[in-house]
């Protein structure tokens, strides 16, 4: 990840900014806040999830925040899930109605509207952004966007929802995270800890004031797979025990099937059900144990519906991980997360 593509030298925080972001600095440190201040973030589409991401990222004090949203007009359905909007905005271009409200959130952030279309943006050979976040995208758009971000070595987050359910896809390409933790009975060791994670550096330190406290300072290399490959190769074989496989959330195969063709639920429910069986086979899970009929019916009926609480959870998770990777302080999400608004479970799957 390139820390600051437009500004090779980190921007420093003034005393007024340190005072303004004091609580955040206490939480994640001055270095992380400085990295946030230097970063350029692009959000594609500012619907329900995008609204939550916008609020969190702008309030965090990001240096430059851009939005590409040039094809959406406010509808009455939007009013129930997007807090920037009012009834007076119905029928107007969405970005025009909210731009002043975004600036009001944090005038210190350099906010801009990306005037390119989605197609023109991804046709460019380079990117001026340090992180790209996509919402409200079709399968083909996600694949195209992911190709563009990978060709520019730019981290990508994609999030979407379907009623009470949602997902987050993360592609940081390759990312080294730094963690400091108390040493447990089972000590960490150099080498692979999963197919996509490897500890490449390990330093043990002793607390000078409390010698019984031994810390491990770890550098972990995280590798990611592109979205298109994930859809084709995602499997749980060899990753979970038989007992765990029986308890896998039905939202996982439902969401992966939906992402294989984002129009299938609305255009051909019978085909969606058939493909759902194929996805279970690919994941190596038993559909008779996993696919609860009430979940399948609810997932289909809620196609295209946005709920504010779900958007808040997903938007908050994406925003927090963006802050984490800018500070390089914690393990990032790797690489596919689902949210079940019925059980409130939010498991992470490494594919």
TrEMBL record:
Q: Report which superkingdom the organism of origin falls in.
A: Eukaryota
**Coiled-coil ranges (or none):** none
Q: Which GO terms describe its cellular component?
A: cytoplasm; SUMO activating enzyme complex
Q: Which BP terms in the Gene Ontology apply to this protein?
A: protein sumoylation
Q: Which Pfam families match?
A: ThiF
Please give one Gene Ontology molecular function term for this protein: SUMO activating enzyme activity
Instruction: Tell me where in this chain the THIF-type NAD/FAD binding fold domain is found.
Output: 21-348
Instruction: Return the protein name.
Output: THIF-type NAD/FAD binding fold domain-containing protein
- What is the protein's species of origin? Arxiozyma heterogenica
């Amino acid at each position: 990840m390139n820390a600051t593509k437009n500004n090779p030298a980190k921007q420093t925080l003034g005393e007024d900014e340190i005072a303004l972001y004091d609580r955040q600095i206490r939480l994640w440190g001055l270095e992380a806040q400085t990295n946030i201040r230097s970063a350029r973030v692009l959000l594609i589409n500012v619907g329900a999830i995008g609204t939550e991401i916008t609020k969190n990222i702008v309030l965090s004090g990001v240096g430059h925040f851009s939005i590409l949203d040039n094809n959406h007009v406010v509808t009455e359905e939007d009013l129930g899930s997007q807090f920037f909007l009012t009834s007076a905005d119905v029928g107007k271009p969405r970005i025009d109605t909210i731009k002043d409200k975004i600036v009001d959130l944090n005038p210190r952030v350099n906010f801009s509207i990306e005037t390119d279309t989605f197609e023109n943006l991804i046709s460019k050979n380079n990117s001026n952004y340090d992180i790209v976040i996509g919402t409200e995208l079709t399968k083909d758009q996600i694949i195209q966007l992911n190709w563009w971000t990978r060709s520019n070595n730019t981290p990508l987050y994609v999030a979407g929802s379907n009623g009470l359910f949602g997902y987050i896809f993360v592609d940081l390409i390759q990312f080294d995270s730094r963690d400091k933790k108390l040493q447990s009975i089972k000590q960490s060791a150099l080498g692979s800890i999963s197919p996509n994670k490897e500890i490449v550096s390990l330093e043990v330190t002793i607390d000078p004031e409390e010698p019984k406290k031994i810390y491990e300072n770890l550098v972990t290399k995280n590798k990611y797979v592109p979205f298109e490959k994930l859809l084709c190769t995602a499997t749980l074989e060899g990753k979970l025990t038989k007992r765990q496989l029986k308890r896998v959330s039905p939202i996982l195969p439902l969401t992966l099937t939906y992402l294989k063709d984002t129009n299938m639920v609305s255009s051909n429910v019978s085909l969606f059900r058939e493909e759902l069986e194929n996805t279970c086979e690919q994941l190596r899970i038993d559909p008779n144990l996993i696919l609860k009929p009430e979940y399948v019916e609810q997932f289909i009926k809620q196609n295209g519906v946005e709920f504010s609480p779900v958007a808040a959870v997903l938007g908050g998770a994406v925003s927090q991980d963006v802050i984490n990777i800018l500070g390089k302080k914690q393990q990032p999400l790797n690489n596919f997360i689902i949210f079940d608004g019925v059980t409130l479970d939010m498991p992470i799957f490494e594919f």
